[in-house]
Amino acid sequence: MALTLDDVKRVAHLARVAVDEAEAQAVLSQLNGVFLLIAEIQAVDTRGVEPMSHALDVTQRLRADAVTESDQRDRFQSIAPHVEGGLYLVPKVIE
Amino acid sequence: MHNVTISSLAAELAGRRLSSVELTRHFLQRIKVLNERYNCFITLDETRSLEQAQAADGLRAAGRAGPLTGIPIAQKDIYCARGWRTTCASRMLSNFVSPYDAHVVEQFNAAGAVILGKTNMDEFAMGSSNENSHFGPVRNPWSEDAVPGGSSGGSAAAVAARLAPGATATDTGGSIRQPAALTGICGLKPTYGMVSRYGMIAFASSLDQGGPMARTAGDLALMLNVMAGFDARDSTSLDRDREDYARGLGQSIRGMKIGLPREFFAEGASAAVTKAVDTAIAEFRKLGCETVEVSLPNTKLSVPVYYVLAPAEASSNLARYDGVRYGYRAPDYADLADMYKKTRAQGFGAEVKRRILIGTYVLSHGYYDAYYIQAQKVRRLIARDFAEAFKACDVIMGPTSPTTAFRIGEKAGDPVQMYLSDIYTIAVNLAGLPGMSIPCGFGGGGLPVGLQIIGNHFAEARMLNVAHQYQMETDWHERVPPGVE
pTM of the prediction? Predict the structure, then answer.
């Protein structure tokens, strides 16, 4: 099944990546090449096979509900693109 | 000084015949002269490196030195190091000075090792040629027209060109083993969960694993002793007793059973690669090993499975780069959504964007079961193949890469051809197994060939000894690229 130009634009929007018309065209043919490769797995009979999400079947560890991090706001904000008064600044969202 | 192993350098340091400052200065001087040729390093910080070297000499004078104290190690630029620019070879992080250390960096610092610099790589570790770097391609020391492999191409080339005695690397689908093979050095990807991923910038979290690169199996063992270990900050870190990975070096491998997967020898590998690998296996027979044919029937499905799972995980991991808290932000934008979109369009390179789009698609409504869940099921079939094969053998051997290093630009325009160059390494990540590559000969044009050794979970010490026994009998690992003195 081949992707369409609309698929590429929809996925790019979902991924929040700007693509212009020419880029979308170029990406479309490359993605179709990749999906042709990926299509090989669809013919495989996997009835009764449990999906494997992790290399080793281990369970997540639990820890005590205690504070482990110290306040490092100033250090972390010193590398932010735009901060003011301890806040990260972004374009206005609500009118 | 730069042509000897880490263990020899450690002995020189321990015998006070050499100081860490002298050693570090020597490598920094070499880098100054040769980095322009190979482009191995993205960031150097002579002052910081020499401060660490001085501190290491102080530790030694105080009688508190360990095996790696004072040894300069190059860090792949995927590992966060406090106060060091950490870019992951991306424009997105080109201005990111890390406020913290990765677990691996912490471990090397605690061992008294010196950070020699941050090495070049494919952007966000996505690539097999090191051509996808915002900071330009790395050149293979064996032939400057050839790629060094990827994604850990800078680390591999730095070790091969004797610009570092050892380097850290990471492997999601072959990114330690394939560049090690293509540059004629040794690299080990440990069992998933052995090396903490904390502070190792995430690509595909269920597959990413850090590991060492060096020129001998013995040196890999010394580095792994520092890198491996439990870390509560990585939820997939394994809580196991510490082991000495060098403990088995020197044991006889007589009677060991080597599995040769039919699928690794049937087709796909070039004649030169097959010949070098066959010769290496004959050497192991001389050492008293038995060989047995095994089958990994789902090998060819590993590439398509990987190109569903890894992009899916990447699309999620890379969602954090939004231009708000750190990293690049586009200069002009209309509103918040536009800021995100332009920041990500400008901050990421073409291959990274391609994988984000693939991943977003396979996770999107209506395609999740057909692609993502199906890929996870086939992943289990691939893991079962290995479990079955290890009933009949102790280690598996075959080629690391189907060809020797290809030319820069040769596969850059065709993602699928590039992806297929990882056919022998990807399945190992999917199964979470340890895998390594050691040099075993040369193909056309004098380019190195790598032998891949795959072990069962937690078999690192055994694999390192297998490689060590081979290196006692052969000298492929001692060959120096032409033009590298």
Answer: 0.97
